[in-house]
Every structure is written in structure tokens, then in C-alpha cells.
Amino acid sequence: MNTRNPADATSAPDPDVRKFTLPIDPVQAARYAYAATDENPVYFDESAALAAGYDGVIAPPTFVSSMLDYSAGPPESGLKPDGVAQDCFPAIVRPDARLMGGGQDIEFVKPIRQGDVVEVTRTVVDHYRRPSARFGELEFVVVESQVVRQDGDLVMRIVDTLVVKQ
Amino acid sequence: MSGPPELVKVATPVSMFRFSAVTWNAHRVHYDEPYATAVEGHEGLLVQAYLLASYLCEMLMRWAGPEGRVVRMNYQVKAPVYAGTQIRCWGRPGPGGQAGQRDVVDLEIGIHVADRQVVHGSAQVRLHS
Asked: What is the CATH code of the structural domain delimited by A13-165?
């Protein structure tokens, strides 16, 4: 579902629910840990992970919740002038909106191992406006993502609050 | 019970570039300083909120120890954080203390840059699995 024209939204089955498959690649997970300057051995070394009670080397807990885009996204020609792919946000976010990460509420239900494959189901759960001293009226879009492992177990629940500057 | 020791980080342009790359975050405010300042009005390269979250989670993981687990983490970004600043992550026992489950501790968490609190939140950490 790639349309982001609100006029088309009624023709789509449900524009506010999207599913993504994300393989937890060991190289990507280790790169994430290095980028975050976190060298905890449970992200790199199986014996350290087993000693810590995990079933194998894990991804950093915030690896999945830090992905701005779970898809390959568009080619560069399809990016907005700010570099962001409009398609990685819910349909309710206007194409010209300037977005900021407002915060997250993350439940780490089970560790995610490197090599797992997770399915992320993203749902818009709230949308409201609120005045702010710094930026005038702000718009908030609240998105919940359920992360389910290949065996069907829920491993993570993420609630993201996107702040839209007018 | 005391909370986790403070964790101090400096997000360099290199670590921010690598973080943007691995999270497929091409928003120019994180790596294109002329764009970030002239077009979006920032004071420098904007540190990714998700990178701040990763720093907080690292602080909690260190405190929990190898067999401890971070159960939940909630945070709100109150002000922008820029590359090169000293990012001080902190946590202290929250008003709830023990969160009902044995060995699960409620914490208030936050980030200060200089004297300003830029992130505020809460966490639940299981100290022994």
C-alpha cells in the first residue's frame, strides 16, 4: 500500500495498519551496537550471551524500535527534500510535515536473537493537537507496533509518539 | 536502593551517521549540518531520539547486570540534543519503588545536557532473571 493521498485512503483496506517483515541480521545488529557505542558482549559473543541466560546472541533491545523504516524504502528520487521517505510514516502524516521523535513506550517482552525473523504490525492508535510554548500548535500521531517472532510469540510492543511541526 | 550510575555519552557525527545508516534514517537533520541549521533552524546536527533511547537502555542494561533484564522503558524528548554535546543519562528509584513483581524495580530516568533536562521517562528493570 503505497498511496499517501488522503483522497485515496477510503479505497484502501485500512491505511493505518501495515505489516513488515524484518530479519534480525547479525551484521546489522552488531553494526547497530557499534553505532550506539555499546559493546556489551551479549550482542557479539555467543558464550557471553549464554552465560547471561539468553538462548543465543541477542540484538540490542532497542534495535527493532529504532528503525525509522522497516522497508527498503523508495529510491533516492522518491525521498522528500528533507531526506525522509514519506511512505515510512502513517497515511495521516501530511507529506509536507516536519517530524520529530517525541518519545516511545517500549515493552521488552522477550529478547530478540540475532537470526530471528520478526513481523512488525504498525497501527495508528491516536491523533491529536496540543499547543506548545516552543513551536506553537503541534500535532501528535501515536503509532503502536507489535513485534512477533517467527514462532508466533510477541517479543516487543512499541508505542511511538511522532510530533508534527506545523 | 540507589539507581544506575550516570552514563555519559557524546554523539559524534560519525556515530550519528552510522546510526542513521543502520536504522535507514535518511533525515538530513542528522548528517547535513547546513540543512539542519539553515532550513530546519537547529543549532547543529540533531541527535536521533532513538540513539538517546539506546543510551538510556545501555545504562539500564549495565545496571541490571548480565542476567538482569530491561522490562519496559518509556521516555519523552523535551528538547533537541545536538552532536558533540555531553549527554548525561541518569536513573533513580521511582516513586513506585518495587513494581509489584519480585526483583522488578521502577526507575525514573532522564537525560541532561549541561543543566537542562532534555529527556524524561521511566523504566522497569528486573535485576535477576
From this structure: 3.10.129.10
pLDDT in tens, B33-42: 999 999 999 9
pLDDT digits (tens, 9 = 90+) for B25-80: 999 999 999 999 999 999 999 999 999 999 999 999 999 999 999 999 999 999 99
Contacts of B67 in chain A (CB under 8 A): 52-53
How far apart CA B2 and CA A144 sit, in angstroms, is 33
d(CA A133, CA B4): 32
Q: Where are the domains of chain A?
A: 13-165
| CATH code of B120's domain | 3.10.129.10
Domains identified in chain B, total number: 1
Return residues 38-97 of B near A (CB < 8 Å): 39-40, 48-51, 53-55, 57-58, 61-62, 66-67, 69-77, 80
- What interface predicted TM-score (ipTM) does this complex get? 0.95
Residue B101 domain boundaries: 7-12+48-126
Which whole number is the average pLDDT over B1-23?
95
Contact at CB, A66 and B21, closer than 8 angstroms: no
Give yes or no for A68 touching B (CB within 8 A).
yes
Residue A19 at interface with chain B, using a CB cutoff of 8 Å: no
Interface test with B, best of A47, A82, A144 (most B CBs within 10 A): A82
